[in-house]
Amino acid sequence: MAEISKKSDSEFTETVPEKVDTDSEMESTPEKGTLDSTAVLDYLKENPDFFVDNPGILDRLKIPHPCGDNTISLIERQVLVLREQMHQQRQQFNELVENARSNETLNQQLHKLTLQLIGCTSLHEVFPILYDRLTADFMADAVQVRIFLAPRCTADAKLKELSDWGGVVPEVIKPLIDTGGEPICVQIRVAQMTCLFGEQAADFGSGMFMPLKGEDERIFGLLGIGSRDPKRFQHTMGTIFMSQLGEIVGRVISPYISDTQEPDTQEESDIQEND
Fold first, then answer.
1. Is residue 184 part of a domain?
2. Has this prediction a pTM greater than 0.70?
3. Number of folded domains in the chain?
4. Which of 156, 96, 168 is nearest to 122 (CA)?
5. From the CB of residue 47, how many other CB atoms can be counted at a distance below 10 Å?
6. Is 212 helix (H, G, I), strand (E, B) or coil?
7. Residue 213 lies in a domain
8. Which tens digit of pLDDT belongs to each residue from 133-187?
9. Which of 183, 189, 263, 264 could serve as 210's disulfide partner, Cβ 3.0–4.6 Å?
10. Residue 164 lies in a domain
């Protein structure tokens, strides 16, 4: 009888695929759209020129010194200084851009106001437009105009802007118009604020006053803007825009003002009454 060779059990054993733990695999696999440190590391290995092509990301990286937090090389120190300088320059640049945008907005608003004012045919039209636009567009809590000289039209004399002070410059206001025609910022000057804005001045923390004058450079009135914010108008702020605003308003109002009467101060008025 022919001898039948016996094969080992392993040769007849069916290979069964190893069961895959799908749950654990799903847990270890990063979700789509997310990156783990291994994926980032593999990408950098495959793209060694990444930081050469993207130098802007270098100033955001933080790599501690291997010898400890208190150890730093000269080159690293120079890099830190340059990084801080770049951060400051970036902030300054952003501030310049923001200021440029604000100035552009102010110029556009001033242009619109100018067009509306030159289209007016009387002081009865000028003052409402001036108050509405300055309050709405220039973040003013209150706007007032006072005229020291008599109007050309007698009907305009009834306007509060011309009748409130009776053609007399209050003594407390006199320093505001003795500035050579330049705007002046005031803070916590209750007497001056009250003289122009009345009882509501108690709520104001700062203001800007602009003398009004015509082509002959003669000061005939005062434009005041009040704000509840004490930091809204400060002595350190620029006054170019306010100077332009005062010049425009002065040129618009001056044709309606008499050119024969000179303003009196409160002191001169009292002397005349005593005589």
1. yes
2. no
3. 1
4. 156
5. 12
6. strand
7. yes
8. 998 887 788 999 999 888 888 888 889 898 888 778 888 888 877 767 788 887 7
9. 183
10. yes
